[in-house]
Amino acid sequence: xxxxxxxxxxACLNCGHAxxxxxxxxxxxxxxxxxxxxxxxxxxxxxxxxxHADKGIFAFIPQVLLHPGALVADYLAxxxxxxxxxxxxxxxxxxxxxxxxxxxxxxxxxxxxxxHLMRARHVPPVLLARVATYFHGLGTYFNVWWLALLxxxxxxxWAVYGRRPVRLNYAExxxxxxxxxxxxxxxxxxxxxxxMLLGRFPGASTAYLQGAVTVxxxxxxxxxxxxxxxxxxxxxxxxxxxxxxxxxxxxxxxxFGWYVFGxx
Length: 264
Description:
Blueprint: H1 2-6, H2 39-51, H3 57-66, H4 68-76, H5 86-104, H6 106-119, H7 125-140, H8 142-161, H9 170-198, H10 204-225, H11 230-262
Keywords: Membrane, Transmembrane, Transmembrane helix
Pfam families: DUF3667
Protein name: DUF3667 domain-containing protein
């Protein structure tokens, strides 16, 4: 089998298209010149599947943290090839944060705090057990829960930035929220260990962090990416951040209330 790869061949090994020179790039299907698999090649392919590291995932991190406005401007203008895919980056990042939070038992700590408050109110043991189960499940499926809220946050951004002078459509609003979400998840990777180490109030600390990051990065995106004035970028960011925070609060409260009390 390996001898076939070394033998001259005037046809593409993938689609059979005739090639000008044996072993050259196929213009029909895009197949690169074939070579015998090596350990280095396999390791590269595995890394490529998860990160596309050869397209700049590590260079993308400072872009998100320091230049979110330029990143959004490039994407809206069609200059996308130079950047790592922000949608894929967010999926990877939320997965890492979920694993970290579970490893640190962060949401279990949130549940312990809520249990402490509810025991003081003499809540029945069956409900206390549901509280513990709820927060354990939240930690396990944080990535699913957080991503499920993203379309609603994008709807808020569309309502705020879909009018003059910006006029973003819904898909572009999703992009804005994805970039802001990437920044928040990066900060969360650093904040979670620090919050647990310092013993800060669990739950509220990350909520405050999300609110602060959302407003700050929407200001940067509005100013540098959408061409708004500083005052225009600020009031829109505060409005969008407040509405997104309200959505988070009420949906989380409703889900908690239904799971703990609604089945009693």
